[in-house]
Structures are given as C-alpha cells and as structure tokens.
Amino acid sequence: MGTRARLASTALTMTLAGGLTATMAPAQAQPAGERTAAAAATYYLKFDKNTVTNSKLSLMKSVAGPDKVIASYKAGSGTSTNTCAVGKGWLPNGNYKIEFHRKNFDGIINGYVIKLADKRCSKGTKRTELFIHSEMKPNGKQGSIESEKWTNSNPNDYYSNGCIKLNPSNIKNLFSRLDSLGWGKLTKLAVVS
Fold it and tell me: Which domain of life is it from (predicted)?
C-alpha cells in the first residue's frame, strides 16, 4: 500500500472512530451551554415593603425575562416607615450586601440570622446592625422570654428594631432552601417599595 493510500486509510479510520465516539455519548448529557447556565445560576432576596408588620421577603432566581420567585414569606420590618429612624425604621430601598449567615447566633437577637451590610438612608443617616432574623434562642428553639418566643397571636411578633423579621418556621425554611442551592450563589438583598 502506498503512502497516499495509508494516509487515506488512517484518515478514514479516525473519522469513523470519531463518529462512533460521538454516537456513544450518554443520552442524558446536557449541552455545554445548559451546564454553564445551571452552574452560573444566581439567587437574591427581595423585600417588598407594604406595612411594618405585613410585608414580603422572597427568594428569587435571576433568569432571562422576569426573575423567578422560589419562595415568599410574610415579613415585618421596624416599627415605623421612616427609613432614617435608627433602631425602629424599616430598611431604606436599595441593594444590600449579605455579610454572613448563622444558625446559632448569640447576641441581642439569636438563632438563625442573615447579617446585612450597613446602609445610609436618603438623608444620609447610617443604618447599622441590620439583620434578617426571627425570635428564638441561640440554638434555634423557642424560649420563654419575649425576644425568644414567637406567639403568632398578633402582628406584634413582626415588629423589629429596624431589621427584617420572619416567623421561626419561615426563616428555617429559607435557610434550608439556601443550604440546598448554595449560599455562595446568593448575591444580595434588594429592598423595594
């Protein structure tokens, strides 16, 4: 066999082998574009202000077109709608960096918390010590004192010192969802009215 014939035979063999390899790929494999999109999925929290004791916190997924609501929870924020009132006003509109999350926080508030970055209101007042939290003991269980006991008997449990407050089962559900999705994919809290 001549050199040309051997080269043609080798090329034909490589083409056939390449074709066989391509047809033997698993049927369930995702196209590369879909794998990249799934790996790059990002999530954020959105707080829609309505009243200080009846607003909504949603876990959102960023997608093409309108973002997708993964879960929504009744939430409260502050005791006043004045966003510049330190320690009692609801959160100023805008985006907040999420600094950390804990399931066993032990401080003025306890248990499941998401710490938000400081934010200035429209008049320049700096709002600090901002959290998403509930009323519970550091171990996540219900306690006997007011700040650790959720009663669900009236909207007063939703009042806060300027934070976002959820009932205990809802904040635990939110944490469970974010544990599954990956906290690293959570990009921010967006506060809107």
Answer: Bacteria
90-123 burial code (b ≥16 CB/10 A, e <16) = bbbeeebebeebbeebeeebbbbbbbbeebebee
Residue linked to tokens 């171990």: 139
Query: Rounded to whole angstroms, how far apart are CA atoms 66 and 86?
Result: 34
Query: Count of alpha carbons within 13 Å of 126, Cβ hemisphere only?
Result: 4
**What backbone torsions phi and psi does residue 169 show, to the nearest 5 degrees?**
-65, -35
**Residue pair 25/18 in contact by the 8 Å Cβ criterion:** no
Q: How far apart are CA 189 and CA 193, in angstroms?
A: 13
Tens digits of per-residue pLDDT, 24-45? 333 344 444 444 444 568 999 9
Q: Could you report the per-residue pLDDT of 61-100, keeping only the tens digit for each?
A: 999 999 999 999 999 999 999 999 999 999 999 999 999 9
Alpha-carbon distance of 90 to 192, in angstroms, equals 11
Q: What DSSP designation does 33 have?
A: H
**Residues 63, 42: Cα–Cα separation, whole Å:** 8
Chain centre distance of CA 1: 67
Contacts of 96 (CB under 8 A, 6+ apart): 116, 117, 119, 130, 188, 189, 190, 191
Residues in the chain: 193
Cα separation, 93 vs 76, whole angstroms: 15
